[in-house]
UniProtKB/TrEMBL annotation:
Lineage, broadest ranks: Bacteria, Bacillati, Actinomycetota, Actinomycetes, Cryptosporangiales
CDD domains for the chain: AKR_AKR13A_13D (cd19076)
SUPFAM superfamilies (UniProt xref): NAD(P)-linked oxidoreductase (SSF51430)
Domain NADP-dependent oxidoreductase, first and last residues per copy: 16-304
Keyword terms of this UniProt record: Oxidoreductase
Keyword ATP-binding applies: no
Record keyword Oxidoreductase present: yes
Record's protein name: Aldo/keto reductase
Amino acid sequence: MKHRMLGRDGLEVSTLGLGCMGMSAFYGASDEAESVATLRRAIELGVTFWDTSDMYGFGANERLLATVLAEHRDAVQLATKFGITTDADGSRRVRNDPEWIRQAIDASLQRLGTDHVDLYYLHRRDPAVPIEEAVGAMASLVAEGKVRYLGLSEVNGETLRRAQAVHPIAAVQSEWSLWTRDLEDDVVPVARELGVGLVPYSPLGRGALTGAVTSLDQLAPDDFRRSNPRFADGNLDRNAVLVRAVADVAKEIGCTPAQAALAWLLAQGDDVVPIPGTRKVHRLGENAAAADLVLTPAQVEALSHAVPREAVAGQRYDARGMAGVNL
């Protein structure tokens, strides 16, 4: 597995990362044994940039990673996040206050079984807390050795500029894929001006771009995608036309649709490190192979043409979810 740099201060990670969320949350019942096998295989393949959060499975995902990190901590570039909390009644809110930041990192380190994380993200922004105050508190964690590098998730370009003025930001993690392109208008140019890396999550459109999801009946009753607008009745069928177009281009390239979608992102720049999520060993291998796939400019253009930005049906989140992004 090749490597790429995130930011200007030395954070080197595998060219493709591993999104671990689905191992513990949002996509139906989890299988810990299968997930652990996938994590161990990731080490073997060199997919060592692992992404988790304190809110995935209410901390369960961090504890899951700890079982493998205990043997392989030095091999992994470990990223986790804070900022989304769940109250006793099950409702969620965003906290960016310094007191919570300090509590959150200590709890994450305990669950992960490590004394530091390589990249610590502000998962969602609370506009009531100045970004300078939140990043200042995060910077103190760097000074203490609990965190090596700082990141932000789902912020806009202005917020990124303000954050960078307080402390170097290594990466912005936001949704980016063939069917989610709004990041390109604001965040990508600012990040490149400032030397901040880009970490696309859901680079396979929550599995849709693989062509594997053709009906809601395939999804578990508690699968998050059942309430996602792009998978809603009607929208799923409309978007299937785009998915088939990607599959046609992938066939011409000689790869799978997932590999084509990942290679398209990698072709956007050397500062891009997608983190496709999976809990299956065979999918991990398929995704990892995309790191060696070099597309021609014509192939990149063909994939872009297959999914016109205005053609994707449905927002990427419901109204509540959309209110919490690009802040």
